[in-house]
Request: fold
Amino acid sequence: MSNLVSVPKNGSLANRNSNQNFPTLSTWLDDVFNRDLPSVFTSNFNTGISLPQVNIKETPDAFVVDMAVPGLKKSDFHIDIDNQLLSISTEVKEENEHKEDNYTRREFGYSSFKRTFTLPESVNDEKINATYKEGILSVHLPKKEEAKQKPARSITIS
Reply:
């Protein structure tokens, strides 16, 4: 059975240490920039795209990051891993030009986002893969063999 993992605003999948009551500069900045701002500040004026919603679930063998990003193509995404940091971003530029006899109208559209997640040590970063289907980007983060949950077993007393 899958469990939905609660993700803090900094996107970390890793367990925090016992000093979680003391905000770091990073978490403080995340709190400042991730507050519920009016939609005029968080959306793109041309397309209305805002920061996509993410679901993260943990299975015995992997973490799965699902991101709702309809209307894009596979080639629009950039997924990078650098030092246990998973980054998912996109940048879409659109230009439309309409010409008539006495005028030309040009419209430009631009939308982008970047989400980053700190990966736990248990993720096998050599086997990460991603799929995009029906507006959902899924990133599969398999666990290392030693981190996979073992089935329950009984121990006999000798």
